[in-house]
């Protein structure tokens, strides 16, 4: 992951996309409810153990999932992972379909990256997420306009564990130590499901550290006092549309 930035718009005029007057989606960079810590995990669905570790201490996490990045979300094993995390009371959200840098895409392709994972979550667990984390934290005004048109808020972070940028587990733990010493009012932490050391080494350490300092481990929506989903309905039965 890289720190987010506001990239310039592509050369295509805004009015060519048909959304030139669309408002910009809100960008969430931190929690607002004091003494909350939102541990978030990108690039899954992958690790059940993350869900279990949080649940065991009465905490909740937030999972920003892709549709077709490390694997296809419609594979039986991944479907079960999605259902398991959601069933444990964790929050699920979008990390787009294929983890492309949205600032390099056309309006049509941005919509596709967002809609395909939204449709997948609606089919598998019956929810349409209200939050999207753009890959690499990158967004521009076009991305924000399309997100708003889809009822989405964009989410970045105010703490990066460094697990996706080469940090060792020891370095990630040290980063959490430095964070807690500053004792911010809230924490919105970026982690990744795709590293076993995050699930089995760094996360247990971070949970113990944050809880010990009085933080409540909550979902992103809870740390903002916002609704996590645009809609909640019944899951759908698998059919021919469940394909990557």
From TrEMBL:
Q: Which Gene3D superfamilies match?
A: Glycoside hydrolase/deacetylase
Q: Topology with regard to the membrane?
A: Lipid-anchor; GPI-anchor
Q: Does the keyword Cytoplasm apply?
A: no
Domain NodB homology, which positions? 35-218
GO CC terms for this protein?
A: plasma membrane; side of membrane
Q: Determine if Flavoprotein is one of this entry's keywords.
A: no
Cofactor(s) essential for the protein? Co(2+)
Query: Which cellular compartments is it found in?
Result: Cell membrane
Question: What PROSITE patterns does the annotation carry?
Answer: NODB
Gene Ontology terms: biological process: carbohydrate metabolic process; cell wall organization
Principal localisation: membrane
Q: Which UniProt keywords apply?
A: Carbohydrate metabolism, Cell membrane, Cell wall biogenesis/degradation, Glycoprotein, GPI-anchor, Hydrolase, Lipoprotein, Membrane, Metal-binding, Signal
A Pfam family matched by this chain, by name?
A: Polysacc_deac_1
Q: Which molecular function GO terms apply here? A: hydrolase activity, acting on carbon-nitrogen (but not peptide) bonds; metal ion binding
In Swiss-Prot or TrEMBL terms, this protein is called Carbohydrate esterase family 4 protein
Q: Which organism is it from?
A: Piloderma croceum (strain F 1598)
